[in-house]
Amino acid sequence: MTPSDSGTTLQALVALIAIANPLAAVPVFLSLVPARDPLATRQAATRVALAVFAILTGAVFIGGPVLAMFGISFAAFRVGGGLVVTLTGLDMLRSGHGAEPDEATPAQVAEHLIVPVAMPLIAGPGTIITAMTMAARAADGGRPSVMLLTVAAVAAFVWLVLALSGWVQQRIGARGQALVARFMGLVLVAIGAQLVLGGVADFFGLAVNATRP
Description:
Distance between the termini: 29 Å
Largest sheet: none
Structural class: mainly alpha
Number of helices: 7
Strand content: under 5%
Oligomer: single chain
Number of domains: 1
Radius of gyration: 17 Å
Shape: globular
Order of helices and strands: HHHHHHH
């Protein structure tokens, strides 16, 4: 790997981790896994990390052509993802937690780990579009495979954050978890609103001063 490739990889890695922000998905993730079960937590973290890797890999190699095939603009994609994030945040605000793990079937838990945890909370519109953009830049330099290493590193970081989330849960207790979940629900609503506003602004060609995810 050349110094130029290393710089591209580091830049893409920092950008993707910052935008993916797996910490924001922790309350929803914890609501889906059995409490005090490290093995189940690690298995669920592995499932989410693999899903994130698959989603971002697909975005890197075929994301642009797929959106173009269906006539979907980046702006519309951001609005749709923003609405999903907003609804998830509203659910967390109302209940103080996600779905009850004891009431959900294994199939439902597996489904919820993919949507909304893996996508769009982690691999959301901002993350996917960033991956597409970085992949295009890497392709211009003749080394698109560099992005595959970056995506793998992002997935490994996601796994680490989620695998350690059970350890954090045991130390803050149920009341602390509910407070954090409500706060993160508000954050998710704000993130979803920002995605929607950014997508609308892009669609109409408006300039926005706020930093867009």
